Amino acid sequence: MTAIRTVSTTPFADQKPGTSGLRKKVSVFQQPHYLENFVQALFDTLGSCRGQTLVLGGDGRYYNDIAAQTILKLAAAAGYSRVLVGLNGLLSTPAASAVIRKYSASGGIILSASHNPGGVNGDFGIKYNISNGGPAPEKVTDAVYERSKSIDHYRILEGDDVALERLGEIRLGAMVVEVVDPVQDYADLMGTLFDFDRIRELLTSNRFTMRFDAMHAITGPYAHAILEDELGAAAGSVMNGQPLPDFGGGHPDPNLAHAEELVALLSRGDGPQFGAAADGDGDRNMILGRGVFVSPSDSLAMLTANADLVPGYRAGLTGVARSMPTSQAVDRVAAKLGISCYETPTGWKFFGNLLDADMATLCGEESFGTGSNHIREKDGLWAVLFWLNVLAARGQSVAEIVHQHWAEFGRNYYSRHDYEALDIDAANGIIEHLRAQMQMLPGQSFGGRQVSLADDFAYTDPVDHSVSQHQGIRIGFSDSARIIFRLSGTGTEGATLRIYLEAYESNQTKLNLDTQDVLADLIAIAKQLTDIEQRTGRKSPTVIT
Ligand code: G16
User: Fold this and answer.
1) How far away, in angstroms, is 62 Cα from ligand 1 center?
2) Ligand 1 atom having least distance to the Cα of 367
3) If you measure from the C-alpha of residue 522 to the centroid of ligand 1, how many angstroms do you get, rounded to a whole number?
4) What pTM, to 2 d.p., does this model score?
5) What are 95-116's pLDDT values in tens digits?
6) Is 112 designated active site?
């Protein structure tokens, strides 16, 4: 017999979701009632869950298995009739989005702290995606937070843990738990978008080698199944393909700083022609060619410019969207194609309405995220397959495609400087200091550059007209260079200040310079405007990407 127990609890004050769900240290989630409170606050906010279908899965990090069992019991008590859960409680974020959409689920819970490190001393996270497969909008996450502040009980089914190691159906009280293959539906969807025959030809030709670094995170099984088994990439093309609860001690963030092994391989003269990596939960990607790094902002622009080569996008793009700090490279491609380009706040949730309304087909962010209307999340492997499709169709190297793109559209030199684990008051002080200067900046010159715009970015959603304020300080110059400042919404230690730097160059003799050299004067302006050294004692950023 299974009974539903009502447990008294008291609120936690820190359950406000950030850019992408609630992210905390594992030890925070391990506190008695912490996870239960948050999930019950979510269910209370959603209203009646009775008779509905929920999707559940995570990136396999430490605490994924324990949290999945707790959530199943809370879902059964909340009245869900069915939960589709990935085998062993695993689902990449894009696969979860695909499953929610395919089976018309009412939503899904994804257990992940994305690219943040895992393990017992690492981070854990939980986020809710709505029925379109995308991250819950701010009005939902704000309501969950409000509810979490007054919660005094939760309801949970008493019973044994569910065996998630086998596919099939199991009953949990009145609820059916269906353990699903985490890879199949996603792989099928990829097959509808890309020219698998052409990619297979490329991957099996002896002229081409590639490496995909799964960083011991969730994309290992997906990459083995799709790249090696289905598309014929040589065994060993997938590196670090076994998901581990602590990601092998690494930091599963696909960028130049954290995917060192891959970056070293691709910088060798005899290295593979193509390299890519994905993050903890499989929604981020990094693209490399031999000797060349494709910045995420450039990648979005180049995918947009080459979309007509890919079957799923051949019919044309309705529009594109990028987050505000993402470089303006894609704007130039959109202008050439005669399609709209939307500028949204940071956070994939802001693309949802544009995609649902068919106003945008491709979206991307500087934070190594690219995706399309096939789901409502950014999608790491999708970006890899898109690039492989373009390489196969054009018969050129990554470097040739990149250089031709810059020659045609000019180059948006771009870099992000992160100052991590700052004292929260000091970081807020910097933003306030910038706000205080904002009105005075337009018209001022810095080293020959004139400020044409200085504002605190606010976004009005063109579909539901909701307004999001304070999304980052934006400083634009008359030569279209920009510096943007904002505080990260995904960190778990102190505050992280992100400084985004961008300079446009169309002179054909200046397209292959060193990015940090080109941006040096903007970096100096950013330091001057923030007074960062004085305020934080930091002389240089923690991470440069
Ligand atoms: C999340 C969001 C992204 C955002 C990124 C960085 O990514 O989904 O939209 O760009 O965080 O956000 P922040 O600058 O606030 O740290 P992920 O991959 O962590 O889920």
Assistant:
1) 20
2) 10
3) 24
4) 0.95
5) 999 999 999 999 999 999 999 9
6) no
**Which residue's C-alpha comes closest to atom 7 of ligand 1?**
20
What is the 178 CA–ligand 1 centroid distance (Å)? 30
418 lines ligand 1 (CB under 6 A): no
Answer yes or no: are the C-beta atoms of 193 and 204 closer than 8 Å.
no
Q: For residue 269, how far is its CA from the centre of ligand 1 (angstroms)?
A: 34
- Rounded to whole angstroms, the Cα distance separating 97 from 343 reads 23
Whether the CB of 20 sits within 6 Å of ligand 1: yes
- Measured distance CA(323)–CA(215) in Å, rounded: 26
Identify the bridge partners of residue 474 per DSSP, sorted by sequence position.
455, 484
Closest atom of ligand 1 to 93 CA is 20
Does the Cβ of 488 fall within 6 Å of ligand 1? Answer: yes
Strands (E), 279-357: 285-289, 292-294, 319-323, 340-344
The domains found in the chain, sorted by start residue, are 3-182 (3.40.120.10), 186-310+345-407 (3.40.120.10), 411-544 (3.30.310.50)
Q: What gap in Å lies between CA 365 and CA 19, rounded to an integer?
A: 13
Atom of ligand 1 nearest to the CA of 283: 18
Which residue do the tokens 């199943």 mark?
Answer: 72
Catalytic residue among 20, 92, 114, 327: 114
What is the model's pLDDT at position 491? 78
Residue 492, pLDDT > 80, answer no
Percent of the chain's residues with pLDDT above 90: 96
Q: For the residues 348-356, what does the mean pLDDT come to?
A: 95
The CA R_g of the chain, rounded to the nearest whole Å, is 23
> How confident is the prediction for the chain on average, in pLDDT?
96
Confidence of residue 1 (pLDDT cuts 50, 70, 90): low
pLDDT band, residue 70 (cuts 50/70/90):
very high
Residue 397 vs residues 142, 225, 305, 347, 497: alpha-carbon distances, Å: 46, 25, 16, 32, 36
Over residues 66-82, mean pLDDT: 98
Residue 490 banded pLDDT, cuts 50, 70, 90? confident
Structure tokens at 439: 């009105």
CA distances from residue 492 to 31, 45, 275, 310 in whole angstroms, order as listed: 16, 25, 30, 39
Parallel/antiparallel/unpaired status of strands 274-278 and 292-294: unpaired
